[in-house]
Specification:
By secondary structure, this protein is of the alpha/beta class. It is built from eight helices and ten strands. It has one domain (10-217): 3-Layer(aba) Sandwich (Rossmann fold), CATH 3.40.50.720. The strands form two sheets. Strands 3-2-1-4-5-8-9-10 form an eight-stranded mixed beta sheet. A two-stranded antiparallel sheet has the order 6-7.
C-alpha cells in the first residue's frame, strides 16, 4: 500500500501543546504547525517565559499561539509534544501524569551524550525515551515522532518546504494516524508509520548519526524513505 496523506484524519481543529516549546526544537515545531493553522500552546515550568516565547512565535508564524505553565498546557491540549532535554524528561512527565491522562503524547526526545569524539546514544533503562514516557504515563497514548527534524530549518521562514519524512511509532494505531497527519501539516513533510513503540530506540539513536553528518558536511540532514 502506497502512502496516501489524504486518508489520514483531519487534525486542523486540534490544539497542540508543546512542552519545551521555549527550546529550539519545540520552538521550530511550533512555528511550522502554527503557520499551518494549528492552535499551539507553549508550555514551560516558567509561565512568563512560555508567554514570551509564544509572542515571538506568533509574530513569525502569524498564527494562534499562547504560553502557559506545563500543567495548564497539558490540560488544555488535544495532543502534547514533549520536546524537553532528556535530563528533564522523566521529572517533567512525572509532574503531569494526571493532566496527560488519555491524551496523545508525542515524544521527540533524543537521549544523546557528547564527548570529544562527537554525539552518541545514551542507554535508557526502559529501552528509549519514548518507552520511558509510556512507563511514566501508562494511561496516555504515547507515540514517538519528530526526532530528525532540523530545528534551524523549522525556524527559518525563508525555507518554504522541509524536505524529509517523520517516522511515527506507537502501539495505538489511531493515535499514530493523528500524529502522521500532524506531521503532514508541515509543508514538504510526510508522516510515515514506522512500527511499534518498542522500535523507538534506534530512531532516537539515529539522530547522533545525523548530527555527525551535519557537522561533516555543513548540512541540515533529515531522512527520506524511498519506494513508499
Amino acid at each position: 500500500m502506497r502512502f496516501d496523506h489524504s486518508i489520514l484524519p483531519d487534525v486542523s481543529g486540534l490544539t497542540v501543546g508543546i512542552l519545551g516549546g521555549t527550546g529550539d526544537q519545540g520552538r521550530g515545531l511550533a512555528i511550522r504547525l502554527s503557520a499551518a493553522g494549528q492552535r499551539i500552546l507553549i508550555g514551560s515550568r516558567n509561565p512568563s517565559r512560555a508567554a514570551d516565547a509564544a509572542g515571538e512565535i506568533a509574530a513569525i508564524s502569524r498564527g494562534s499561539v499562547a504560553g502557559e505553565a506545563n500543567a495548564a498546557v497539558a490540560e488544555r491540549s488535544d495532543v502534547v509534544i514533549v520536546a524537553v532535554p532528556f535530563d528533564a524528561h522523566a521529572s517533567t512527565l512525572r509532574e503531569l501524569v494526571e493532566p496527560l491522562r488519555g491524551k496523545i503524547v508525542v515524544d521527540c526526545v533524543n537521549p544523546l551524550g557528547f564527548d570529544k569524539q562527537g554525539p552518541f546514544a545514551l542507554p535508557v533503562p526502559e529501552g528509549s525515551a519514548a518507552q520511558q514516557a509510556a512507563s511514566i504515563l501508562p494511561e496516555s497514548r504515547v507515540c514517538a515522532a519528530f526526532h530528525h527534524v532540523s530545528a534551524e530549518l523549522l525556524a527559518d521562514p525563508s525555507v518554504e518546504q522541509v524536505d524529509l519524512d517523520v517516522l511515527v511509532l506507537g502501539d495505538d494505531r489511531e493515535a499514530v494516524r493523528i500524529v502522521q497527519a500532524l506531521a503532514g501539516r508541515i509543508s514538504g513533510v510526510r508522516g510515515l508509520h514506522a512500527g511499534r513503540l518498542r522500535n523507538a530506540a534506534q530512531v532516537e539513536a539515529l539522530t547522533a548519526n545525523l548530527i555527525a553528518i551535519n557537522k561533516r558536511y555543513g548540512a541540515h540532514a533529515g531522512v527520506r524513505i524511498t519506494d513508499v
